[in-house]
Amino acid sequence: MSKKVKVGINGFGTIGKRIAMAINKQNDMSVSGIIKKRPDYNAYYAVEKGFKIYAVSEKEAEAFQKAGIEVRGTLVDLIKESDIIIDATPGGIGETYRPLYSELDINVIYQGGERASVAEGSFNALCNYDESMGKKTLRVVSCNTTGLLRSICALKDLAEIKKVDAVLIRRGADPPEIKKGPINAITINPPTIPSHHAHDVKTVLPWVNISTAAVVVPTTLMHVHHVTIRFKHNIKKNEIIEILNAYPRIIMVDSKSTKIESTAQLMDAARLGREKGDINELVIFEDSITIEKNELQFFQAVHQESIVIPENIDAIRASLKLAQKLESIKETDRTLGLTKRLY
Amino acid sequence: MSKKVKVGINGFGTIGKRIAMAINKQNDMSVSGIIKKRPDYNAYYAVEKGFKIYAVSEKEAEAFQKAGIEVRGTLVDLIKESDIIIDATPGGIGETYRPLYSELDINVIYQGGERASVAEGSFNALCNYDESMGKKTLRVVSCNTTGLLRSICALKDLAEIKKVDAVLIRRGADPPEIKKGPINAITINPPTIPSHHAHDVKTVLPWVNISTAAVVVPTTLMHVHHVTIRFKHNIKKNEIIEILNAYPRIIMVDSKSTKIESTAQLMDAARLGREKGDINELVIFEDSITIEKNELQFFQAVHQESIVIPENIDAIRASLKLAQKLESIKETDRTLGLTKRLY
Fold first, then answer.
1. Count of structural domains within chain B
2. Is the CB of A261 inside 8 Å of chain B's CB atoms?
3. Are A222 and B186 within 8 A, CB to CB?
4. Residues of B in contact with A165 (CB under 8 A)
5. Which residue has the higher pLDDT, B173 or B342?
6. What is the C-alpha separation between A283 and A194, in angstroms, rounded?
7. Domain contains B269
8. B288 and B328 share one domain
9. Structural domain for B128, as ranges
10. HSE-up (13 A, CA, CB side) for residue B295
11. Are residue B296 and residue B313 in the same domain, yes or no?
């Protein structure tokens, strides 16, 4: 087997820790180390799992030493030990590290919380892997944008798309975020239309005519999207279902037989068949698929903590030219157990 | 002044108690009595406010006597004491009283939780008051349908409407409902498209081409709708804003200046200027009004506890032919303080 590429992960929160565990399952890459900002339960988990811990700088290292956690060096040291960095820092923070990454001439995969201009290109494996091959820096678009791109790219070859309209019902916070809200409100966020998601979809698919409108609601589990796609030609329901069933990283859920009608039941079902209960796939509620001539409507759900994990693995391969598109997607899906079944 | 018509109210929950208080403010009607199913804080409030309490039957009366609450008679007695009955019983229960109402030949206003077939016609004051004049039984459509009808009827004269599409983000429960959910989920409800709301809008406006899709979320304050209206001709933003500003029972909220971007802030603002903090109007978020050629998009919010209250007052007048449409609407809005300002 060829030598594994070494991936340093800056940030070990919701996304970073999941990427680290996903890399552990790959044959062509390994985790060189992870950066934690400060010691907490995720840091102890990292130690438990055998990841080498680096601190952002000497200053941050002290707190780890006090907590009894061995620190192997600084971010600069980790970059020097790595072939590529996954920046999984909080939204907007990745940008602040860009001068350093650039100075040390390292490939970087940023997350969707950064502005598109942070990287050479925005990335979604199924939509633009080929165009992303060899780019030194990539940005895996956000969870909501990833969800929209999966359904758009799955359906774009069926008939030319005239317009996509989506209403995003976003989760208020991730499960561990105790300081975010709302507790009891529906927030129009942003109060103007379109939301930034439409623009973000275009960073990957510049040709698509899309509008998005978004609210935030008091739940932590998943986002839900109501998607309307108007095609140039009339379409048939069985064609749509066939394509979505065959497409990678999309799971169709039939509410009638499973009685899964909510994000809570989806997450509960995933705990039966999925490690840690994550759903890396986009979930489409099959019974909601409704067609009127050239217009398709449906509901989909996005597990914000994990939908971008397979995309990050593929982004590493694309940036470092480790594999071709379908080869990478197939290997990622095999190793992560994305079997198109929840349980 | 002419003699006041006597209105009996069957049900004194979220809607019934508000209708009773609203009738107290009218010059042409008074509450003959209210039916409570069982004694609770709403029953004590009714006593406090001087409403005469009736029990459904002799059997239910006992519990009131034990609770020290005087019962004036049964539902049959109340019907005989009244010129019209407001049925504000829980959804689906009104239908079970229909044979009795019919037997005693009383006019009845049902609520939107009943099937459309319960009454001679479905009612919204601004959309079909004239067609409802003199009908013995009317059904005031539900809160969500009332919200949709207000914006559709406000805008229908601007240009011919080709299609209305709405995504309804519904509150999970009313504030006092401690046994309903979801607590932490987005429920696709119903899991199929269209939801019943599209059909319900057509009970008042049979000509409208409408599709609705709905989810339920963990909040108690208000519903939020994302509405798309495609007209046959191109439209202009200033025309839309002008019409909505001039239309009764619609309040425009400018998020930029007020910082009101959520249902929580709306309800908090209403507590400044509105008795009991109710918002009887449909609220439209002005900054969300977005136009592309012939297509209009915006967000609106519906206070489910109170939006139908003015409609019930007008429905009484329409059924009993007490007043013409604009006369009734103007009087209802004056007495309820619907000044097009929240505070």
1. 2
2. yes
3. yes
4. 165, 228
5. B173
6. 23
7. yes
8. no
9. 5-141+308-336
10. 10
11. no
C-alpha B255, offset from chain centre? 25
Q: Which residues of A touch B265 (CB under 8 A)?
A: 185
pTM above 0.80, yes or no: yes
B147 and B282 share one domain: yes
Closest residue of A to B195, CA-based?
A288
ipTM over cut 0.90: yes
Could you tell me the sign of the dihedral formed by the alpha carbons of A77, A82, A84, A90, in that order? negative
Q: What does the longest C-alpha to C-alpha distance in chain A come to?
A: 66
CB B112 within 8 A of CB B15: no
A255:B188 CB<8 A: yes
Given pLDDT bands bounded at 50, 70 and 90, which one contains residue B65? Answer: very high
Which residue, among B162, B193, B297, would best test binding to A if mutated, counting the most A CBs under 10 Å from its CB? Answer: B193
- Of all residues in chain B, the percent with pLDDT exceeding 90 is 96
| Cα angle B125-B119-B161, degrees, rounded to a multiple of 5 | 45
Task: Give the count of beta carbons closer than 10 Å to the beta carbon of residue A336.
Answer: 23
| Residue B218 and residue B102 share a domain | no
pLDDT of residue B2: 64
Query: What are the residue ranges in chain A where pLDDT is below 50?
Result: 1
Q: Is residue A130 part of a domain?
A: yes
Q: For B285, phi and psi rounded to 5 degrees?
A: -80, 105
Q: What CATH number did the domain enclosing A327 receive?
A: 3.40.50.720
Task: Based on the fold, state whether residues A80 and A193 are members of the same structural domain.
Answer: no
The residue-averaged pLDDT of B49-72 equals 94
Q: Are residues A180 and A86 in the same domain?
A: no
CA A310 to chain centre: 7
Q: Does B326 touch chain A (CB under 8 A)?
A: no
Give A 76-135 residues with CB within 8 A of chain B: none
Chain A CA closest to residue B259: A191
- Check CB contact under 8 Å for A299 and B213: yes
Quick: pLDDT tens for B153-177. Answer: 999 999 999 999 999 999 999 999 9
| Contact across the interface for A226 and B220, Cβ inside 8 Å | no
Q: Which chain B residues touch A228 with a CB distance below 8 Å?
A: 165
Residues of chain B with C-beta less than 8 angstroms from the C-beta of A240: none
Task: Examine residue B342 and state whether it is found in any structural domain, yes or no.
Answer: no
Choose the closest CB to A262 out of B185, B194, B256: B185
Mean pLDDT lowest among A259-263, B105-109, B269-273, B314-318: B269-273
The pLDDT score that the predictor gives to residue A339 is: 86
* Partners of B230 in the β-ladder: B163, B295
Residue A342 within any structural domain of the chain = no
> Do B174 and B257 belong to one domain?
yes
In terms of domains, do B113 and B20 share one?
A: yes
